[in-house]
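User: Working on a comparison across species. This one is CaiB/BaiF CoA transferase family protein from Sphingomonas floccifaciens. Can you predict its structure so I can line it up against the others?
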Amino acid sequence: MSILNGIRVLDCSIAMAGPFAAQRLGDMGADVIKVEPTSGEWQRHASAGGATGNQINVSFLSLNRNKRSLAVDLKAPEGKALLLELVKTADVFLQNYRPGVAERLGVDYATLSAINPRLIYVSMSGYGEDGPYRSYPGQDLLLQGMSGAMLSAGAEGQPPAPAGQYLVDAITAYSAFEGALAALFHRERTGEGQLVQVNMLDAIATIQMQELSVFTVGGKPQSRSAEAHAHSYIRAPYGVFATSDGYITLAMAPLAKLAELLDEPFLATLDAERDGWTQRDAIFSAVKARLVTATSAEWLERFRAEDIWAGPVYGYAELVDDPQVKHNGTFVEYDHPTEGRVKTPGFPIRFSKTPSTIARGAPLVGEHSREVLGELGLDEDAVTRLVESGVVRQHA
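Assistant: Here's the predicted structure for CaiB/BaiF CoA transferase family protein from Sphingomonas floccifaciens:
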């Protein structure tokens, strides 16, 4: 048995952040019902990297395991009535509609909490439920640019560089996941449900707790160096450096020890806490000039022997094949009925008594419509009528 067995989640979200949050709940055993349009959720039709899959593209596949699909037209009165019946049975309702859409559909918190006062209603948005930006599109790259984070790394005069992952979507998903769990815990104590609101702007701002506090409390400006320093608020050396056969990362190495290992006397004349800030470019240049004289493996062996913080720069092929990643079981494999053998990132949280599992892969559109509606008490003829009228879709 997994830790959230017995908890039912209605996932009415699209794209990445909402579905990812709901998937985490499903991984822990919750019964997640993905309520999607009869045409299928948006992510089914937008394949990242062109990885279209057989019947399910990889984007959707990666964000929707451990869910059942109910495909229903919520704009049809009968379709909306089915959702409201499901709300009576639910513990968590999760949506990331643009502000105002839930009210227009009649699935806002006030409406649903009146039906089920114990409901945890998780509402996700780009910038907040109100305010001057409430109607702006909340997309990952846009929020990365707005967050200030792009100007904390890289070289002065060079274009700002986005993260190599969908960073804002991911941290927003985890914020929603955390909020849902905390609200469920509160309900266990008090019996009352509540509204949980998460927005992408606050999520990406608050994970920069140290950086923004250095600016707001410490009064230190966010200034990039001429060299491609990895973070404006960390002393040199700190960044990615070329070797004779690739790249390594090097973080805050003691300058005296580094001078010895690199055979670079200049570094030994410097004070790390003073010159590590004021002479970032000179330090970076000196280290850069020495590291290209040997291979990545050679430098990492030398640095690790002296407890200097350094590591490899991987691509995905190296990450998947890394011995620690294999030891941790970071990736899981399972068989999907249409997509075959699936290898994908697994579970970052481990429970000794209630482990996360994969009970099912990502569903086909409406794959579980008949099953879910049967649980509401509708008989076969009633479900067939809904399917034939187009209110509900059942996968063939």
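For your comparison, note: The longest strand covers residues 31-36.

User: Helpful, thanks.
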